[in-house]
Write a structure and sequence with these properties.
Elements (H helix, E strand, L loop, with lengths): L12 H20 L13 H4 L11 H12 L21 H13 L9 H17 L6 E5 L2 H17 L2 H5 L7 E6 L5 H8 L7 E4 L9 H13 L3 E8 L11 H11 L2 E5 L25 E5 L11 E5 L2 H8 L33 H11 L1 H24 L3 E3 L10 E3 L2
Parallel strand pairs: 2-3, 2-4, 4-5, 5-6
Antiparallel strand pairs: 1-7, 6-7, 8-9
Helix pairs in contact: 1-3, 4-12, 5-12, 6-8, 6-11
């Protein structure tokens, strides 16, 4: 039994409500005042301030809420500021603050079973599939981000190449495999190959051509060279928006080569996939994405969803499920009631315990609408193009390369 006087529920529900409202108001204040809140360094004493003792006595909710407001909230990444240009961080949408609160109150587990949160995630997947141009029968899963999504996608690519036995027998007898990506591709591709047991050397980097895209002749030569060396080509990763330069591979050309060579075609579209929503000419940067076998993308970048949420989409939903599905007795579907439901997301990834990430994505799309998302993405690209014009007009700046989408690279000439 719990010792008398010790409970994890609020001792005074009304006091909890008042303190909660104050904290919620502080969150809204932070959103509204974003322009006045750039990044600031955390205090040197912060580690001591937030330290948890081995015999933590418990301060109560009101005092902890006050600590959140005064000791934690001021020292964020800074990416909620509209002029934060560091890395590829999204700013987040205010609607996401409310969605995260609702998701926490519901406390749903989206590993499986038949409840409302499952329908919301499926709606987000279906919408994303349509935006990508993938057919009915394609599947998807929301993830922490593109890094996790890449592991899922390349695991399915391996399953297609070697068959179902790889799940039981592992990779010991498979020999060396190869995944191809452009120089400057995201490190998550190498990490995926490491986690899958093939080692980072299984990711072979192909040089860029003059346009900044993967050199297709060099790719073909690398595939032929590996086959001659008895290294088995498995997949080509097309980059839609590289993190360093914003370059896009020619996805249509890669799709054609993968079709001829019998290789899996994966698109790393962490932020650049969402150019599908942009106006011309920027939407043309992802022409051919509808031919991909798998796509990885993030909602917490160009869609403005609070961290974290990414996704993987796969053309072959049956293959996707076979790659990950495991149903021991305690996970058997029950046909009806909470234990029912036809799609259990645990069958499509690594996790059984899954939070309700989908709600903030659904809310962002539903609240803003596709036209507003399209306008935001298009405006970002126009702003980068305008910045390039200013650089070209400058006497002390020079473009490092032409602007393709929303990234402008330049340097000082003196």
């Amino acid at each position: 039994m719990t010792k008398p006087g010790y409970r994890i529920d609020p001792a005074d529900p009304e006091a909890f409500r008042r303190a909660f409202h104050e904290l919620a108001a502080a969150c809204l204040d932070r959103v509204e005042q974003a322009r006045a809140l750039p990044w600031v360094p955390k205090p040197e004493t912060m580690a001591d301030t937030v330290a948890l003792g081995s015999d933590e006595p418990g301060l109560g909710e009101a005092e902890v809420f006050a600590m959140m407001r005064g000791e934690v909230m001021p020292y964020a990444t800074g990416n909620t500021h509209p002029r934060f240009f560091g890395w590829v961080h999204g700013t987040g949408q205010p609607v996401g603050v409310a969605a995260e609160m609702v998701a926490a109150a519901m406390n749903s587990n989206l590993g499986g079973r038949d409840h409302g949160a499952m329908a919301v995630e499926q709606s987000v997947i279906d919408w994303s599939r349509r935006m990508a141009g993938l057919p009915e029968g394609a599947s998807g899963l929301l993830t922490t981000g593109t890094s996790q999504a890449t592991i899922l996608a390349l695991s399915a690519a391996r399953m297609k190449l070697f068959g179902d036995a790889v799940r039981k027998d592992g990779i010991a007898g498979l020999g060396r495999v190869r995944v191809y990506c452009v120089d400057g591709a995201h490190a998550c591709i190498e990490k995926a190959m490491e986690v899958m047991g093939h080692g980072s050397c299984a990711a072979r980097h192909i040089p860029e051509g003059p346009d900044g895209a993967m050199d297709m002749a060099a790719l073909e030569a690398a595939i032929a060279e590996d086959r001659a060396a008895r290294i088995l080509p498995m997949a080509v990763v097309g980059t839609a928006g590289s993190v360093n330069t914003g370059n896009f591979d020619r996805l249509d050309a890669i799709a054609g080569l993968c079709g001829r060579e019998g290789l899996w075609f994966h698109v790393d579209g962490a932020f650049g996939f969402w150019a599908v929503l942009a106006e011309a000419p920027w939407c043309d940067l992802v022409r051919g994405v509808d031919r991909a076998d798998s796509i990885a993308a993030d909602f917490h970048k160009w869609i403005g969803v609070p961290y974290d949420c990414g996704m993987v989409l796969m053309r072959d939903g049956d293959l996707h499920r076979r790659t990950f599905s495991t149903r021991p007795a305690y996970l058997e579907g029950q046909g009806a009631g909470l234990g029912g439901g036809e799609t259990w997301f645990t069958d499509y990834g690594l996790e059984l315990s899954r939070g309700f990430r989908a709600l903030k994505v659904w809310a962002a799309i539903k609240a803003a609408g596709v036209p507003a998302l399209s306008a935001t993405i298009t405006d970002n690209c126009r702003q980068a193009a305008m910045m390039a014009e200013l650089v070209e007009a400058s006497e002390v700046l020079e473009l490092a390369q032409p602007v393709q989408a929303n990234v402008c690279c330049f340097y000082l000439t003196r």
